[in-house]
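Readers of this paper often ask what the protein records in our data store actually look like. Below, we set out a record of this kind in full and without editing:
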Amino acid sequence: MKYRAPAKLNLFLHVTGRRTDGFHDLQTVFQLVALYDTLDIEATHDGQITREPAPSDPLLAQLRDADDLTVRAARLLQQQSGTQLGARIHVQKRIPAGGGLGGGSSDAACVLTALNDQWGLHWPVQRLASLGLALGSDVPVFVHGHNAFASGRGEDLTPLVLPPRWFLIVNPGVAIATRELFAAPELTRDTPALTIRALPADGGRNDFELVVRARYPQVAAVLDHLAPWGARLTGTGASVFSIFATQAAAEEVAADLPRHWQGYIAPGLQC
Protein backbone atom coordinates (compact mmCIF):
# COMPACT_ATOMS: atom_id res chain seq x y z
CA MET A 1 0.00 0.00 0.00
CA LYS A 2 1.13 3.55 -0.73
CA TYR A 3 1.24 6.24 1.95
CA ARG A 4 2.22 9.90 1.95
CA ALA A 5 4.39 11.40 4.69
CA PRO A 6 4.23 15.22 4.90
CA ALA A 7 6.97 17.67 5.81
CA LYS A 8 6.75 20.15 8.67
CA LEU A 9 7.86 23.69 9.33
CA ASN A 10 8.67 25.22 12.70
CA LEU A 11 6.91 28.58 12.63
CA PHE A 12 9.13 29.49 15.58
CA LEU A 13 11.51 27.47 17.73
CA HIS A 14 12.48 28.53 21.24
CA VAL A 15 14.92 26.76 23.55
CA THR A 16 13.62 27.34 27.06
CA GLY A 17 16.11 25.29 29.09
CA ARG A 18 18.22 22.18 29.55
CA ARG A 19 16.80 18.92 30.82
CA THR A 20 18.32 16.45 33.25
CA ASP A 21 17.98 13.69 30.61
CA GLY A 22 20.44 15.44 28.29
CA PHE A 23 17.81 16.91 25.98
CA HIS A 24 16.56 20.50 25.80
CA ASP A 25 13.13 21.92 26.57
CA LEU A 26 11.66 23.45 23.44
CA GLN A 27 8.58 25.35 22.35
CA THR A 28 7.43 25.50 18.76
CA VAL A 29 4.46 25.54 16.42
CA PHE A 30 4.46 22.70 13.91
CA GLN A 31 2.88 23.53 10.55
CA LEU A 32 2.43 20.48 8.33
CA VAL A 33 2.85 21.21 4.62
CA ALA A 34 1.91 19.44 1.39
CA LEU A 35 5.44 18.35 0.53
CA TYR A 36 5.49 14.57 0.72
CA ASP A 37 7.64 11.48 0.74
CA THR A 38 5.86 8.43 -0.65
CA LEU A 39 6.17 5.08 1.10
CA ASP A 40 5.25 1.61 -0.11
CA ILE A 41 4.65 -0.55 2.96
CA GLU A 42 3.64 -4.20 2.82
CA ALA A 43 3.12 -6.56 5.74
CA THR A 44 4.80 -9.95 5.38
CA HIS A 45 4.55 -13.28 7.18
CA ASP A 46 8.28 -14.02 7.42
CA GLY A 47 8.98 -11.73 10.37
CA GLN A 48 11.68 -9.83 8.46
CA ILE A 49 11.87 -6.01 8.26
CA THR A 50 13.51 -4.99 4.99
CA ARG A 51 13.91 -2.03 2.65
CA GLU A 52 13.13 -3.15 -0.88
CA PRO A 53 14.59 -1.82 -3.05
CA ALA A 54 17.15 0.59 -1.63
CA PRO A 55 15.84 4.14 -1.03
CA SER A 56 15.90 6.42 -4.06
CA ASP A 57 17.61 9.19 -2.05
CA PRO A 58 21.42 8.79 -2.33
CA LEU A 59 22.00 9.73 1.32
CA LEU A 60 19.51 7.17 2.58
CA ALA A 61 20.84 4.53 0.20
CA GLN A 62 24.16 4.73 2.07
CA LEU A 63 22.53 3.99 5.42
CA ARG A 64 22.56 0.54 6.90
CA ASP A 65 19.09 -0.85 7.55
CA ALA A 66 19.79 -0.62 11.28
CA ASP A 67 20.33 3.14 10.97
CA ASP A 68 17.31 3.89 8.78
CA LEU A 69 14.45 5.42 10.78
CA THR A 70 11.76 3.54 8.86
CA VAL A 71 13.39 0.19 9.57
CA ARG A 72 14.03 1.17 13.18
CA ALA A 73 10.38 2.20 13.57
CA ALA A 74 9.11 -1.10 12.19
CA ARG A 75 11.48 -3.15 14.33
CA LEU A 76 10.62 -1.20 17.46
CA LEU A 77 6.88 -1.69 16.91
CA GLN A 78 7.47 -5.36 16.14
CA GLN A 79 9.47 -5.82 19.34
CA GLN A 80 7.10 -3.92 21.60
CA SER A 81 3.95 -5.54 20.20
CA GLY A 82 5.32 -9.07 20.03
CA THR A 83 3.94 -9.67 16.55
CA GLN A 84 5.47 -12.37 14.37
CA LEU A 85 4.71 -10.41 11.20
CA GLY A 86 7.27 -8.49 9.16
CA ALA A 87 7.27 -5.75 6.55
CA ARG A 88 8.83 -4.55 3.32
CA ILE A 89 9.36 -0.79 3.04
CA HIS A 90 10.28 1.39 0.08
CA VAL A 91 10.70 5.16 0.45
CA GLN A 92 10.56 7.61 -2.44
CA LYS A 93 12.10 10.80 -1.08
CA ARG A 94 10.99 14.27 -2.04
CA ILE A 95 11.55 15.97 1.32
CA PRO A 96 15.28 16.86 1.41
CA ALA A 97 17.13 14.82 4.02
CA GLY A 98 18.70 16.80 6.85
CA GLY A 99 16.85 19.96 5.92
CA GLY A 100 14.94 20.62 9.14
CA LEU A 101 11.69 19.52 7.48
CA GLY A 102 11.20 16.34 9.48
CA GLY A 103 11.24 13.95 6.53
CA GLY A 104 12.87 11.07 8.40
CA SER A 105 10.57 11.52 11.41
CA SER A 106 7.51 11.72 9.16
CA ASP A 107 8.53 8.54 7.35
CA ALA A 108 9.02 6.76 10.68
CA ALA A 109 5.61 7.92 11.91
CA CYS A 110 4.06 6.73 8.66
CA VAL A 111 5.56 3.27 9.17
CA LEU A 112 4.23 3.11 12.74
CA THR A 113 0.69 4.07 11.80
CA ALA A 114 0.62 1.92 8.65
CA LEU A 115 1.92 -1.22 10.36
CA ASN A 116 -0.32 -0.65 13.37
CA ASP A 117 -3.16 -1.07 10.88
CA GLN A 118 -1.66 -3.77 8.65
CA TRP A 119 -0.52 -5.89 11.57
CA GLY A 120 -3.91 -5.52 13.26
CA LEU A 121 -2.44 -4.16 16.49
CA HIS A 122 -5.09 -1.50 17.12
CA TRP A 123 -2.82 0.57 19.33
CA PRO A 124 -4.28 4.01 20.18
CA VAL A 125 -2.59 7.03 18.66
CA GLN A 126 -1.10 8.21 21.97
CA ARG A 127 0.61 4.86 22.51
CA LEU A 128 2.12 5.00 19.02
CA ALA A 129 3.24 8.59 19.60
CA SER A 130 4.94 7.64 22.88
CA LEU A 131 6.75 4.82 21.11
CA GLY A 132 7.75 7.20 18.32
CA LEU A 133 9.40 9.58 20.79
CA ALA A 134 12.13 6.97 21.25
CA LEU A 135 12.94 7.44 17.55
CA GLY A 136 12.99 11.23 17.51
CA SER A 137 11.42 14.31 19.06
CA ASP A 138 9.48 15.18 15.89
CA VAL A 139 7.91 11.75 15.42
CA PRO A 140 4.90 12.27 17.76
CA VAL A 141 3.49 15.26 15.84
CA PHE A 142 3.48 13.22 12.63
CA VAL A 143 1.82 10.27 14.37
CA HIS A 144 -0.96 12.58 15.54
CA GLY A 145 -1.12 14.25 12.12
CA HIS A 146 -2.18 17.71 13.35
CA ASN A 147 -0.70 21.18 13.28
CA ALA A 148 0.20 21.80 16.90
CA PHE A 149 1.84 23.89 19.58
CA ALA A 150 4.55 21.75 21.13
CA SER A 151 6.62 21.89 24.30
CA GLY A 152 8.89 19.58 26.26
CA ARG A 153 11.06 17.71 23.77
CA GLY A 154 8.27 18.28 21.28
CA GLU A 155 5.97 15.55 22.57
CA ASP A 156 3.56 17.74 24.57
CA LEU A 157 1.17 18.66 21.76
CA THR A 158 -1.87 20.91 21.60
CA PRO A 159 -3.66 20.90 18.21
CA LEU A 160 -3.91 24.30 16.52
CA VAL A 161 -6.06 25.66 13.73
CA LEU A 162 -3.72 27.62 11.45
CA PRO A 163 -4.79 29.94 8.63
CA PRO A 164 -4.56 28.80 5.00
CA ARG A 165 -1.38 30.04 3.34
CA TRP A 166 1.44 29.09 1.00
CA PHE A 167 5.10 28.49 1.74
CA LEU A 168 8.24 28.88 -0.33
CA ILE A 169 10.80 26.49 1.13
CA VAL A 170 14.42 26.80 0.03
CA ASN A 171 17.19 24.30 0.74
CA PRO A 172 20.77 25.34 -0.10
CA GLY A 173 21.99 21.75 -0.19
CA VAL A 174 24.18 21.84 2.90
CA ALA A 175 24.09 19.25 5.69
CA ILE A 176 23.80 20.59 9.23
CA ALA A 177 24.92 18.64 12.28
CA THR A 178 22.02 19.05 14.71
CA ARG A 179 23.95 17.75 17.71
CA GLU A 180 26.66 20.32 17.05
CA LEU A 181 24.11 23.12 17.22
CA PHE A 182 22.55 21.89 20.46
CA ALA A 183 26.05 21.79 21.97
CA ALA A 184 26.99 25.26 20.70
CA PRO A 185 28.01 27.50 23.64
CA GLU A 186 26.46 30.55 21.97
CA LEU A 187 22.99 28.96 21.66
CA THR A 188 20.30 30.80 23.63
CA ARG A 189 18.86 28.36 26.14
CA ASP A 190 16.79 30.61 28.39
CA THR A 191 14.05 31.99 26.17
CA PRO A 192 11.03 32.65 28.40
CA ALA A 193 8.31 30.02 28.04
CA LEU A 194 5.10 31.03 26.28
CA THR A 195 1.49 30.03 26.72
CA ILE A 196 -0.75 29.28 23.73
CA ARG A 197 -2.60 32.55 24.31
CA ALA A 198 0.70 34.44 24.10
CA LEU A 199 1.95 32.91 20.85
CA PRO A 200 3.66 35.62 18.78
CA ALA A 201 1.43 37.00 16.03
CA ASP A 202 4.44 37.49 13.74
CA GLY A 203 5.54 33.87 14.10
CA GLY A 204 8.39 34.51 16.53
CA ARG A 205 12.02 33.58 16.04
CA ASN A 206 14.18 30.50 15.79
CA ASP A 207 16.82 30.41 18.54
CA PHE A 208 19.11 28.40 16.26
CA GLU A 209 19.19 31.01 13.51
CA LEU A 210 22.10 33.10 14.82
CA VAL A 211 24.19 29.97 15.41
CA VAL A 212 23.42 28.62 11.94
CA ARG A 213 24.12 31.99 10.31
CA ALA A 214 27.58 32.12 11.85
CA ARG A 215 28.54 28.55 11.02
CA TYR A 216 26.85 27.95 7.67
CA PRO A 217 27.26 30.81 5.18
CA GLN A 218 25.19 28.93 2.60
CA VAL A 219 22.15 29.13 4.89
CA ALA A 220 22.90 32.76 5.74
CA ALA A 221 22.78 33.53 2.01
CA VAL A 222 19.27 32.06 1.74
CA LEU A 223 18.10 33.95 4.82
CA ASP A 224 19.44 37.19 3.34
CA HIS A 225 17.91 36.52 -0.08
CA LEU A 226 14.45 35.87 1.38
CA ALA A 227 14.68 38.55 4.10
CA PRO A 228 12.25 40.91 2.29
CA TRP A 229 9.62 38.17 2.59
CA GLY A 230 10.18 37.38 6.26
CA ALA A 231 12.63 34.48 5.92
CA ARG A 232 12.74 31.98 8.79
CA LEU A 233 14.83 28.93 9.57
CA THR A 234 12.93 25.70 10.19
CA GLY A 235 14.22 23.31 12.83
CA THR A 236 17.98 23.49 13.04
CA GLY A 237 18.10 24.04 9.27
CA ALA A 238 19.28 23.98 6.61
CA SER A 239 15.93 24.85 5.01
CA VAL A 240 14.53 28.38 5.08
CA PHE A 241 10.95 29.40 4.36
CA SER A 242 8.79 32.43 3.69
CA ILE A 243 5.01 32.70 4.01
CA PHE A 244 2.69 33.96 1.26
CA ALA A 245 -1.03 34.52 0.94
CA THR A 246 -1.24 32.93 -2.52
CA GLN A 247 0.53 30.38 -4.66
CA ALA A 248 1.16 33.01 -7.33
CA ALA A 249 3.01 35.25 -4.88
CA ALA A 250 5.24 32.37 -3.81
CA GLU A 251 5.94 31.41 -7.42
CA GLU A 252 6.95 34.97 -8.29
CA VAL A 253 9.65 34.96 -5.62
CA ALA A 254 10.72 31.40 -6.45
CA ALA A 255 11.35 32.39 -10.06
CA ASP A 256 14.35 34.49 -8.97
CA LEU A 257 16.05 31.85 -6.83
CA PRO A 258 19.62 30.88 -7.75
CA ARG A 259 19.65 27.62 -9.68
CA HIS A 260 21.84 25.77 -7.19
CA TRP A 261 19.16 26.09 -4.48
CA GLN A 262 16.26 23.66 -4.21
CA GLY A 263 12.96 25.52 -4.01
CA TYR A 264 9.60 24.00 -3.10
CA ILE A 265 6.19 25.66 -3.09
CA ALA A 266 3.59 24.00 -0.89
CA PRO A 267 0.36 24.95 0.88
CA GLY A 268 0.02 24.47 4.59
CA LEU A 269 -2.13 21.50 5.52
CA GLN A 270 -5.37 22.30 7.29
CA CYS A 271 -5.36 19.49 9.82
